[in-house]
UniProtKB/TrEMBL annotation, chains A, B:
Molecular functions per Gene Ontology: ATP binding; triphosphoribosyl-dephospho-CoA synthase activity
This protein's name: Triphosphoribosyl-dephospho-CoA protein
Entries under InterPro entries matching the protein: CitG
Length: 285, 285
């Protein structure tokens, strides 16, 4: 039986394997400077941080280590958001023991307890993770400039002075960031994605590709909002719905979005997290 | 910097990512019951055994653990031969310390010292690995029936009675098995593949696909010999040469061999091992 850390690594690999996943790197589509093999190397590099989370090391420190390892390839940011979802989920699944996971144990309630228990030190670890890789983020509100994640470790004194936990940080960005929203609300879309992946038939990557479209149709991708604005994000979600309705070939949509450089990365992160939960609950590959 | 165990895992992932790799599962071709995601899960599952090898655990025991973990997916044998090459190479690269690898250290001589130092207990571990997965192998010569690997753990008493080390075992099959031949001769094709991968330009999976063709053209694949006979193996190697000469589209050859179920698996194992050596020597992904 796989450990929780191994399930998390497999989730990362299955996510990028799933195709078509319109706009994102997958088995048959990539960007010139962000290729499939960068996601392979990212998943390998993240391994030590994932094992730290399973062993009960602090969430922030485990996440920073996972990101540092993930970034040890030439593609840049491959799985930052996915690791941010996976780290507390691994903790919730493993109970911090690092032993093979108990299929019964991973629930939204347990996951919420992990995020609610995060500390100021966890927030500092999160900020330090930005030292290792460039992540596309929005400008913060005016009253949060000192907490701009792009400041990386330089923002840590402000975080410490205001005694903000990692949960506190994400409460402040939940309105505009889909990963943060999961963090402060018991991971509702992650667990829903896991249920859908488990309920569908066929090869797991095919199920993941389907659930990617469903999540994308369901809500605009916040990473697309950040990079291209609300209108584009809503247009992409409408197109995903059209594909689900059978009125647009998902392969055509995928070609179009890659051509335009529009990648719904947050939705891909949710799929990775959903795959992890499904694997923890006994999904066979 | 990646550890040797991490480089080995990445080598497994890059190998299956490389396309076209005529006859084998790759990013765009698979068999109904042996799919791309089974190789992802195999590489994840092998991780603990790879780390054991890097930490200095016995070769046979590490290999058995790697195979047991690899087999924890529904596709069956995905990377048995690759793990058999990687296990001693990891030991040679890490010096058994498990620490980040020293780029200068992995040489054919060091690798040969590891295989020459294998014990009867290592041979027993190798036989026990066959308990975890079905591997296509030839009938043994009449005087080696007691040592038939398909007997798995049942063959261990005969191995112990004859005091055969794992190196001894492979000397007896080197004439008909390309992995065994590497084991007893300092891994010449593995190191040659690594040099070629390092010398070529472009994305690493593309280089690996090219080197796969070169190795296949250079020598008949012994796994194809076992499953389909000498004539087919020689025909496949000739076709690989035709592809290298530009007179046959490798994609066409790939479609044809998958259609016929002819998979040059030993050549893929050599590519995985060559990728590992190249990564150890500083290849960037």
């Amino acid at each position: 039986m796989r450990t929780s850390a191994a399930n998390a690594q497999l989730a990362l690999l299955l996510e990028v394997t799933a195709t078509p996943k319109p706009g994102n790197v997958d088995r048959v589509r990539e960007y010139p400077d962000l290729r499939f093999e960068h996601f392979m190397a990212g998943a390998v590099g993240a391994s030590q941080g994932l094992r730290m989370a399973a062993a009960g090391d602090p969430v922030g420190e485990s996440f920073e280590r996972a990101v540092e390892g993930m970034a040890d390839q030439r593609g840049g940011n491959t799985q930052f958001g996915a690791l941010l979802l996976l780290t507390p989920l691994i903790r919730a699944a493993s109970g911090g023991s690092g032993s093979p996971s108990d299929n019964e144990e991973l629930t939204p309630e347990r996951a919420a307890r992990v995020t609610e228990a995060t500390t100021v030190a966890d927030a500092a670890g999160f900020y330090r993770a930005f030292e290792h890789v460039d992540v596309a983020v929005d400008d913060p509100p005016a009253d949060m400039e000192a907490l701009d994640v792009r400041r990386g470790a330089d923002a840590v004194p402000a975080v410490e002075e205001r005694k903000l936990t990692l949960h506190d940080i994400f409460e402040r960005s939940a309105d505009r960031d889909g990963v943060a929203r999961e963090w402060v609300s018991g991971f509702p879309r992650t667990f829903a994605a896991a249920d859908r992946i488990a309920a569908l038939d066929g090869p797991v990557p095919d199920r993941a590709a389907r659930v990617f479209l469903e999540l994308l149709a369901d809500e605009p991708d916040t990473f697309v909002v950040t990079k291209h604005g609300d209108a584009t994000a809503q247009e992409v979600s409408a197109a995903a719905q059209t594909a689900l309705d059978g009125d647009l070939d998902p392969e055509t949509l995928a070609d179009d979005l890659v051509e335009r450089g529009v990648n719904p990365g947050t939705t891909a992160d949710l799929v990775a997290a959903g795959l992890f939960v499904a694997l923890e609950r006994g999904l066979d590959v």
